[in-house]
Design a protein that fits this description.
This protein is an alpha+beta fold. The chain has a 5-stranded antiparallel sheet with strand order 2-3-4-8-5. A 5-stranded antiparallel sheet has the order 11-10-9-13-14. A 3-stranded antiparallel sheet has the order 1-7-6, with no helix packed on it. A hairpin with a 5-residue loop joins strand 3 and strand 4. Helix 7 packs antiparallel against helix 9. The longest helix has 24 residues.
């Protein structure tokens, strides 16, 4: 991948996150997201190059970025990547690989819950923006696992997360809804629908929304995500979208069953086009593109091949701050337990359509 550069002053707040910590940024084109993170998550993303079967199911790793304004810190992350410009602005290039960083000794502090606040770090990972191909992306974040802490977690954190799991669907089903954004249409606000509605016409569901469900009621959360009651998406198109999610989930399951890893507190990110007309056009573009490929297998590549195609749906596994490869320990049953139940619920939705 060719180097890409950003001025830190040109990064803007990323508004398409359904859950997670504050402080996520994007470039002005919307092509990437810049997520504050710990070194462990950077290490995991870099290690995925040795696991090619997983790569289609995670956001593309672009590189790393220093959030600290100290030029020496930036240089440590990306040597020869800082360009002196007026007003002490920095141009930071995102390279294919990040050099090894020498870390200062870590001072242990008593653990305290972050409650979604921005994490304290100078490190950020730069990833593909999964929502970029969509005009009005509907987004669902599903936190996987009955056990949500890794082996390095202190006792207080283990107790806190175990309590959350016990009180939600995490324990019985191995997953819970962590957050959601659904586009209600441009006329939603003028129709008097203001509860939980953002200025751009999205209904926002925070972590407390997902924590209200039990194993017997969790299906309602997915019905809200697919706007079944509102019938915002044509029935045939919706069935196609859910079936595609199921295909992706089954394919991801096959990969995870072959890998030996532990991914505590990882999430499934579901995205589909929420604008009815844009979805119709995206499906039509797919059909036309497929017909072109079938009738002209030897057609030469054109400039249009580099143009981003409109999105229909996407599924990615995300959040690897507590993930590692564990050779000899077998597949991640904790993760797969949740994955199986998500598949079961989506299968039920298809059957009822």
């Amino acid at each position: 991948m060719a180097q890409k550069s950003f001025r830190t002053s040109q990064l803007i707040a990323f508004n398409n996150a359904a859950a997670g910590h504050d402080g996520v940024l994007s470039d002005r084109t919307g092509a990437v997201v810049v997520k504050p993170c710990c070194q462990a998550e950077i290490d995991f993303y870099q290690s995925t190059a040795a696991h090619p079967l997983l790569l289609p199911f995670i956001p593309t790793f672009v590189g790393t970025l220093a959030l600290n304004s100290d030029p020496e810190v930036v240089s440590a992350l990306t040597p020869s990547a800082v360009v002196n410009v007026p007003d002490s602005e920095q141009v930071i290039r995102i390279a294919d690989a990040t050099p090894t960083i020498s870390h200062a000794p870590v001072v242990e502090k008593a653990w305290a819950p972050s409650n979604g606040a921005k994490i304290t770090t100078d490190l950020a990972i730069v990833l593909e923006n999964v929502t970029a191909p969509f005009k009005k992306p509907n987004i669902l974040d599903v936190k996987l696992g009955a056990r949500l802490w890794d082996d390095q977690a202190p006792p207080a954190k283990r107790a806190k997360l175990d309590k959350v799991a016990e009180e939600t669907t995490s324990k019985p089903l191995g997953f819970r809804i962590a957050g959601m954004r659904t586009w209600q249409g441009s006329a939603a606000a003028t129709d008097g629908m203001t509860d939980g509605l953002s200025s751009d016409g999205y209904k926002l569901y925070d972590k407390n929304y997902g924590r209200q469900f039990s194993a017997s009621t969790i299906r309602r959360g997915f019905e809200d995500f697919f706007l079944l009651e509102k019938a915002a998406v044509a029935k045939g198109s919706l069935r196609k979208i859910i079936n595609r999610f199921l295909e992706d989930l089954e394919a991801l399951k096959m990969v995870l069953e072959r890998e030996e890893s532990r991914m505590y507190s990882a999430s499934l990110l579901f995205v589909y086009e929420g604008d009815r007309e844009a979805l119709k056009n995206a499906l039509l573009a797919e059909k036309e593109d497929g017909a072109l490929t079938t009738t002209n297998e030897t057609h030469e590549e054109s400039d249009d091949d580099d143009e981003p195609k409109p999105g229909v749906q996407a599924l990615k596994l995300i959040d690897f701050a507590h993930a590692q490869w564990t050779p000899g320990q077998g597949k991640d049953e904790n993760l797969l337990h949740g994955l199986d139940h998500v598949i079961e619920i989506l299968e039920g939705l298809v059957t009822s359509q």
